[in-house]
Every structure is written in structure tokens, then in C-alpha cells.
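Because showing beats explaining, we let one protein speak, sequence and C-alpha cells together, and leave readers to judge.
___
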Amino acid sequence: MYGLSVHGLLVLYALSLLFYFSDFVSSNRKMKRMGTGLLVFVWVLQTGYLIYRLLQLDNPAGLTRFETLFFFVWLLVTISLAASRLVRIEPFVFAVNVVGFSVLATVAAEGPSAAPLRLWDAAQYLLIVHISLALAAYALFTAGAVLSLMYLLLHRQLKSRSWNAVVRRMPSLETIDRYAYGAVLAGTPLLILSLAVAAATLLAAHRAEWLADWKVIAALVAVIVYIIYIAKRKRRMDPGLLTARWNLYAFGVLLANSLIGAASRFHSWS
């Protein structure tokens, strides 16, 4: 049953991306409408599955790696649909969903795990708050990184005076920079709150020594780099090209944090 549902979802997701790519290449509005319709359907199926799983859980300690990454993909799809409706940046919608599809394909290949996240025995209900805030922050930072990458690519194309169809359909550098800044501005306090909840949970569980874990340290480094990016962007201390790079540096630290795993016991998977 799992294979039919998740792999069927992957097929629909892939078809949506193909339609978006066709519109991206040939400016075919019909293809875009079909891609958007399929993406909405994917979002509805994801939402239904998440609600079903939440109703099954007796407590948040029953969350598995599959559910957390699935929720992360749901957040990316939600952000892309909102962007498609509000700001209409097709390359951004396509790129964010390529990331989402890659993550979903990875968890589909691994299969669902019956093993819960072995985080903290005490204050279990703070766990769901910590995970939700962290995943929301990661989704916003992913969107911001995609926008900053678009900024660098568009800047390079404009500098070389390469006026192709993709460049003509992209918004201005100022618009891309503004949306990237907004994503980071929303994501940074969420990550800080997530770390604060994690710290409170560890203290409540009398495991304060885990605050010196590599994942906590890396997350704090990421917060510092994002705060530097916000300060530089707000005060216009550097041109947009350099602040876009700062955003990507911060996202790189965030990726490194998520890959630490083996050197960390902060998030232990059964």
C-alpha cells in the first residue's frame, strides 16, 4: 500500500515538473496550467497523508524520519504554490520543486521506518514544536538559497549580455534580492526559536551537556551567518552580488549541519 501511494505521488510530482519545464522552455501557458493543477493535486494528497499520520500518532515521539522529511517536502510545495500565485516567478517554482522531488524520491527509496526519532524522553510535546519550527525554517532557507542562486545566474547572464528566453521571463535582480531577503528574514527567527525550544527540552530532561553537540554548534554558526547576511542586506553594506553569496554560504553551513549525523548524537535514529 505504501509503495502504491508514495510512488504514485512521485509519478504525479514528476509529471507536474515536466509540464512546468515545458512552460519554462517554451512559454506554453497551457502546460503551466496543467503543471499547476497536478502540483495542487500533489499538495492535497500530501496534506491528506500528513493529517492521517498525525491522527495515528499517540504522541510526537512516534514521528519517524520519513514523516519529518515528508513534511519538509510539503512545506516546499506549499511555498512554491504560494509563490506561483503571488509573485509568479516560474523558474523559482520549478527549482524549489526539483529540490522537493529529490527529497521525496530519497525517502521513497528508503521506505517508511517504524523506528521513531529517539530524541528526548522528557517534555515530549516540545519535540513537535521544535521539529515544526526547524522544518519551516529549513524550507524558507531553501527558498532563499534558490532565489540567491537565481540572482547570481541572472547577474552573470546580464553581465555577459546573454538575452535568452529564460532571462526575459525572470524578474529584476532587485526583485529576486528582495524575495530572498524576505525568506531569510522569516526563516532566521524560526530557527532561533527552534533552538530555544530544543535547549529548553534538554534542560527539562537534565541533559544540558548535549548543548555542546556538533549539531547545536553548527546550527548556531548558521544563525550567526544568517544574521550577518541580514545586517549586510539591511544596511546595504555590500552589493547584491556579495549578499547573495553570503546567503548561499549560510545555506551551506545549514546543509553541513544536516549532514553531520555520524558525528552527532543530538538526533539519534533508531
